[in-house]
């Protein structure tokens, strides 16, 4: 009986958590813009997420999932670009190859971590089975996105300063974009997670 009661509490807590901040479709753009103001790169956030204003973004969880997906797509594109560059550098035994190779490994890790975080977030869908490990899943998402951000930022650090070749500048610019998008996605997910945790403190 106690186990059943706990499951019911978690169910209603989860539904409350999902529906906090729910907006009507017509207010999706306003919701996106307001949410993006809490990120480190609000202009980039609005630019990348506004095209999804006509989709089904109606709460913080859905917005987090879109932001993570945008970050993942960009990371995959950057990885593909760097694979081509690294292959060319390796063939000519360029001195830049080790740096690019290491950065490529970090971006590959970011891609894997972002993919894991999106899969984990999908398990928190309100239509999915509700279990008592909701916050365990939330912690997993935060851990993986944080790790993806760390890897992307470490890759950026491989190219210090401003005076560098066009090739290095292109890589740095693309990786920096991944890092900034991931930072924004993490901030948006923190909003969702904070609402869930706040709801948990109010449960009966």
Overview of this protein structure:
By secondary structure, the protein is an all-alpha fold. Helices cover 75% and strands 0% of the residues. It is built from 7 helices and no strands. The chain has helices spanning 2-19, 28-36, 42-49, 60-91, 97-122, 134-157, 166-201. The longest helix is centred in the C-terminal third of the chain and has 36 residues, at 166-201. It is elongated and about 60 Å long.
Mean pLDDT: 84
> Which parts are unreliable, with pLDDT below 50 for 5 consecutive residues or more?
1-24
Distance between the termini: 17 Å
Helix content: over 70%
Our count of helices gives 7
Shape: elongated
* Biggest pleated sheet: none
Return the structural class. Answer: mainly alpha
Pattern of helices and strands:
HHHHHHH
Our estimate of the beta-strand percent is under 5%
- Report Rg: 19 Å
Tell me how many strands there are.
0
Tell me the layout of helices and strands.
Layout: H1 2-19, H2 28-36, H3 42-49, H4 60-91, H5 97-122, H6 134-157, H7 166-201
Key features of this structure:
0% strand; 204 residues; mainly alpha
Short description:
The protein has 204 residues and is an all-alpha fold.
């Amino acid at each position: 009986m106690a186990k059943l009661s706990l499951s019911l509490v978690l169910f209603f807590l989860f539904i409350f958590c999902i529906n906090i901040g729910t907006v009507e479709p017509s207010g999706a753009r306003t919701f996106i813009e307001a949410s993006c103001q809490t990120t480190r790169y609000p202009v980039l956030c609005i630019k990348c997420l506004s095209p999804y204003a006509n989709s089904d973004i109606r709460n913080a969880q859905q917005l987090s999932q879109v932001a993570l997906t945008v970050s993942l797509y960009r990371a995959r594109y950057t990885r593909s670009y760097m694979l081509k560059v690294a292959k060319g550098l390796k063939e000519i035994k360029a001195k830049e190859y080790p740096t690019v190779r290491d950065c490529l490994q970090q971006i590959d890790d970011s891609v894997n971590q972002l993919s894991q975080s999106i899969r984990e977030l999908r398990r928190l869908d309100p239509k999915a089975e509700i279990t008592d490990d909701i916050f365990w899943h939330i912690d997993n998402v935060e851990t993986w996105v944080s790790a993806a951000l760390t890897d992307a930022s470490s890759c950026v650090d491989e190219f210090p300063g401003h005076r560098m070749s066009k090739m290095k500048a292109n890589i740095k610019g693309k990786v920096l974009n991944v890092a900034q998008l991931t930072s924004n996605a993490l901030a948006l997910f923190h909003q969702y997670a904070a609402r869930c945790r706040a709801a948990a403190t109010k449960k009966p």
